[in-house]
Amino acid sequence: MKILFELFVTFMKIGGFTFGGGYAMLPMIQKEVVNNKKWATDGEVLDYFAISQVTPGVIAVNTATFIGYRLAGVMGGVFATIGVIFPSIIIIAIIAAFLNNFATLPVVIHAFNGIRACVCVLILTAVYNMAKKSIVDIATAILFIVVTLVTIMKVVSPFVLVILSGIFGVIIQLIKTRKKVG
To answer: For a Cys-Cys bond, which of 11, 28, 169, 171 suits 83, CB 3.0-4.6 Å?
Structure first.
């Protein structure tokens, strides 16, 4: 029961004090889960992030669910998920009740502009930290550059890119394995 409470409180803190959506939560999830709680390694959290991106739903919610499930089964997944979404539900309800009255005020518009800039930095920080651990050789560096360019050009669906990247990773590993054997 203690772990369920810890999961709820930890993910409630992440959900309540991280603004900017799922990607902005990733650095805080990594800090809490890897550094503070020692519930997972950096590599495991990167795997959770990767799996969370290819499953339907919000990346932070999916990641919380995976971590909770790993630590305490189905109930752990439920408690972690409820913890991470609980603050958002409360905040959204409050904002929805009052936003129409204040949305056109210059101070609110400027505050949202400032928040957006901050969120961009949080997302870039998450990308930088993930890239440091994910780009491990020339093949992954090339894949990173190609996927970045294709994504910017909006030529292919992100879903297709994730599938193709996974296939590329398997092929590269097979080639490496054959070189070691041969």
So the answer is: 11
Quote the CA–CA distance of 143 and 110 in Å, as a whole number: 38
The pLDDT tens digits of the residues spanning 65-91 come to 999 999 999 999 999 999 999 998 998
Amino acid identity, residue 116? R
Residue 147 CA to residue 137 CA, distance in Å, equals: 15
Which residue in this structure is represented by tokens 């992954």? 140
Dihedral, 147, 148, 154, 155 alpha carbons, nearest 10: -30
The structure tokens listed for 113 are 């502009």
Q: What is the pLDDT of residues 137-178, one digit of tens each?
A: 999 999 999 999 999 998 888 889 989 999 999 999 898 888
Contacts of 71 (CB under 8 A, 6+ apart): 3, 7, 39, 80
pTM > 0.85: yes or no: no
Distance between CA atoms of 62 and 112, rounded to whole angstroms?
26
Is residue 122 within 8 A of residue 14, CB to CB? The reply is: no
